[in-house]
Automatic annotation (TrEMBL):
It comes from Streptomyces lomondensis. PANTHER family: FAD DEPENDENT OXIDOREDUCTASE DOMAIN-CONTAINING PROTEIN, SARCOSINE DEHYDROGENASE-RELATED. This is Oxidoreductase. Transmembrane segments: none annotated. It comes from the Bacteria. Residues 27-383 form the FAD dependent oxidoreductase domain. Pfam families: DAO. InterPro entries: FAD-dep_OxRdtase, FAD/NAD-bd_sf.
Amino acid sequence: MKQIPYWLDTAPALPDRSGKDLPDEADVVVIGGGLTGLSTAYHTARKGARVVLVEKDKVGSGASGRNGSMCTQGLTISPGEARKRYGQERARELYDSFREAVDVVEEITRTEEIDCDFHRAGRLGVAFKPQHFESMRATQRDLADNFGHETQLLTRAELKSELGSDYYHGALLDPLSAALHVGKFVHGLAEAAERAGAQIHERNAATGLTRLPGGGFLVETLHGAIRAKQVMAATDAYTDKALPWFRKRLINVGSFIIVTEPLGEARAKALIPNGRLVVDSKNIGHYIRLTPDNRLAFGGRARFAPSDPASDVKSGGILKREMTEIFPQLAGVRIDYVWGGMVGFSWDRLPHAGEANGLYYSMGYCGHGVQMATYMGRAVAEMMDGRPEANPLRGLGFPKVPVPFYNGTPWFLPFGGAYYKAKDKLR
Ligand SMILES: Cc1cc2nc3c(=O)[nH]c(=O)nc-3n(C[C@H](O)[C@H](O)[C@H](O)COP(=O)(O)OP(=O)(O)OC[C@H]3O[C@@H](n4cnc5c(N)ncnc54)[C@H](O)[C@@H]3O)c2cc1C
């Protein structure tokens, strides 16, 4: 069993971008080489800025290379919750930006000819409890009436044509969500950023930031310092002590994935006949999809623990049990990959972007970063170019986690986790 993300293992080998001399100055320094950072570098370089991206490890080594490879539609909170908080008009604006985000990923793959299997597979939200199906019915009406988004409700009987499992009580099908091979997308975006003129420096962490009296920043890194007119923090759940302001605002949660051996086309099709992206409605839910070579990728939070090699294996065992509960026909199937990663959540369960103390940022995607990180990179490039109104998340602030002395270590998660696990047991 390999303990590396399937998506990185099956993407072409990455060039080594470490050991390069850092220039003395740049227009824009981007900290972090995931989709947020790469997209910011790509879009700012295309505007003609001199861009330097520093990445602590390798491009895509954070969540961007370790996720479920789902580019799904829809807000990170329910449309009803968004309306309650912000009013219908603003909720619709936010909803539309999440929808546009998927279009932006598609546009980049086309413009830059990134061969990453992007296709509108559709997302099947499956109901774990009968009452979840009833709330899906209400959501479907709300989406159609107030958000201009047509989805399809599938009863338990109708779901049989979409899923080889009797585990769920029906589903809501969104046709616009897309699947992609995120390893290939991350690589392609890094190459596109370089073609646009950005420099990428791997294995070089930013270690400190000092605001300069005449404007801009001095960014200290492991391999020298660089002056920058503008700096972008694109570190999400991997934010370290170099950026303490953000650590007080993020709750980082481990998420884990197992991938089976190749199942063959017929067996794979019997599980998910139309190749949908499946996301279940449990509190501690699962995300499930087929890979391009007919394996099943089965992800979930499994336990409220951070990701590390031992924790990933432990979580993989839980996921395997859960997978065979949902798909008993997979008992005995070999697991070829297990890995984990950290997902950045914000206190209000929305992503946040803007400028804090002169520093640009975008993070806290709450599990929707494949499309939103890519999209927000484009928005931040516009913001840096003097257009703050291009920020679809403007006005949301970035609330601190309201736990005394909180500094980025969410010690309280296992308690909340136990509560939600117990709720999931009641069917
Ligand atoms: C297991 C898992 C499954 C997921 N599934 C999905 C999914 O299917 N769909 C979806 O939309 N989202 C999913 N997500 C979330 C999504 O992957 C993230 O929201 C997104 O990748 C965040 O991108 P990012 O570029 O902001 O951060 P990251 O990709 O995490 O990149 C941050 C980078 O910053 C670097 N860094 C940190 N500190 C420094 C420093 N001081 N100096 C230099 N570099 C630094 C890190 O090394 C890292 O590479 C999933 C996440 C996980 C972990």
